[in-house]
Amino acid sequence: MSIFDTLSTYGVVPVIAIDDAAAALPLADALIAGGLPVAEITFRTEAARDVIAKIAAERPEMIVGAGTVLTEAQADDALAAGARFALSPGIDAAVLAHAARIGLPFAPGIMGPSELQIALRNGCEMVKFFPAMPAGGPSMLKNIAAPYAHTGIGFNPTGGVTPENLPDWLALPQVRAVGGTWIARRDDIAAGNWYVITENARAAVARV
Ligand code: 3PG
């Protein structure tokens, strides 16, 4: 089973921007307590690498990946820290080739068929559909995905996904898991509102 197959068993990937590595383990514990031991730690903060490293080392039951991976160096950092997968909002063939070389499963972002075909050419198993709601929502993705069903490519819609529209996304057979910031918001992490994150995770799992 690939790491993206594993993500699909959860159906939801919390997208996380975390400013302080000291919050890494409480955050992981809050998600684990909510039944969602999955996290995309984005390289939008300086702390991302340390956060991934702490979680990977001390909470091995957690499936931790790296998000907003824009460069080869970030892919190297993510893998060295223990990330089991990586994602990006956009697609960059050089970064994809590098990720393949180092053995880091990578899901690039796409918003249309041409980008999707670049991902297929690079052997991607899953892509992020970003920004999912502004780009047209579930009906748009349904139409983009239709001609590629035979390829087996999977999708991770992110951007505007909410608890309310979550079932509409997961109803599409090609959607492996949605992504979203609503489960572990940056301000809740900064404030240490772990019970809020646990409840959000629990509610998300209940809707999958
Ligand atoms: C992101 O920040 O990666 C996505 O845009 C998440 O969007 P959301 O805040 O709408 O979940």
Automatic annotation (TrEMBL):
EC number in record: 4.1.2.14
Keywords: Carbohydrate metabolism, Lyase, Schiff base
Classification via InterPro entries: Aldlse_KDPG_KHG (IPR000887), Aldolase_TIM (IPR013785), KDPG/KHG_AS_1 (IPR031337), KDPG/KHG_AS_2 (IPR031338)
Pfam families on file: Aldolase (PF01081)
Family annotation (PROSITE patterns): ALDOLASE_KDPG_KHG_1, ALDOLASE_KDPG_KHG_2
Pathway the protein takes part in: Carbohydrate acid metabolism; 2-dehydro-3-deoxy-D-gluconate degradation; D-glyceraldehyde 3-phosphate and pyruvate from 2-dehydro-3-deoxy-D-gluconate: step 2/2
Gene Ontology MF annotations: 2-dehydro-3-deoxy-phosphogluconate aldolase activity
Catalytic activities: 2-dehydro-3-deoxy-6-phospho-D-gluconate = D-glyceraldehyde 3-phosphate + pyruvate
The keyword Lyase belongs to this UniProt entry's keyword annotation: yes
Subunit (UniProt): Homotrimer.
Family to which the UniProt record says this protein belongs: Belongs to the KHG/KDPG aldolase family.
Protein name stated in the entry: 2-dehydro-3-deoxy-phosphogluconate aldolase
Organism, as annotated: Marinovum algicola
Higher taxonomy: Bacteria, Pseudomonadati, Pseudomonadota, Alphaproteobacteria, Rhodobacterales
